[in-house]
Design a protein that fits this description.
By secondary structure, the chain is an alpha+beta fold. 38% of the residues lie in helices and 30% in strands.
C-alpha cells in the first residue's frame, strides 16, 4: 500500500508534467495571446472572423426583407468572400421563395439570390440586395 508521502510525490510529478505540457503547447502555438488580443480588440477592427459569423445577420435580414415563406436558404460558399479593402464579408445566399403559403407547387415558388455585405468590424449589414434568378 502506498504511503502518503509517495502519493504526494506522484501527484506533484503529474501536476508538473501536465503544467509543463500545457505551457509548452500555448507557447509554441501562441494561442493564448491571440485569443486574448482577439477578445480585447487588437486593432484589426474585425469582430466577424469568418463567413459563418457574417451569415447570421444576413439570414435575419432576409427573413425581415422577404414577406414570403422561404423553403431553402443556402450560402453560396464559392462566391462568398472577405473583402479586405472594405473590411467586410460579402455573403451570397441562394433562396427558394414560396409566394403562396401552404403550397408546395413550383408555380407558386421562385428562386432568388440575396447578396449581403456585412461589416467585419460591427457585424452589421451595410448593403443588401435580392434578385430573382
Amino acid at each position: 500500500m502506498l504511503k502518503t508521502k509517495e502519493i504526494l510525490t506522484v501527484f506533484a510529478a503529474a501536476s508538473t508534467v501536465i503544467g509543463a505540457s500545457v505551457a509548452t503547447t500555448l507557447y509554441v502555438t501562441n494561442s493564448s495571446t491571440d485569443e486574448i488580443d482577439a477578445r480585447s480588440g487588437d486593432g484589426s477592427g474585425r469582430i466577424a472572423y469568418n463567413l459563418s459569423d457574417a451569415f447570421f445577420p444576413c439570414r435575419d435580414h432576409i427573413q425581415k426583407a422577404i414577406p414570403y415563406k422561404l423553403r431553402h436558404v443556402t450560402v453560396d460558399s464559392r462566391s462568398s468572400r472577405y473583402d479586405e479593402k472594405d473590411n467586410a464579408h460579402v455573403v451570397y445566399v441562394d433562396l427558394e421563395v414560396i409566394e403562396k403559403p401552404g403550397s408546395f407547387y413550383s408555380k407558386y415558388s421562385y428562386s432568388a439570390q440575396a447578396v449581403c455585405t456585412v461589416s467585419a468590424a460591427s457585424n452589421e449589414i451595410t448593403a443588401f440586395t435580392v434578385r430573382k434568378s
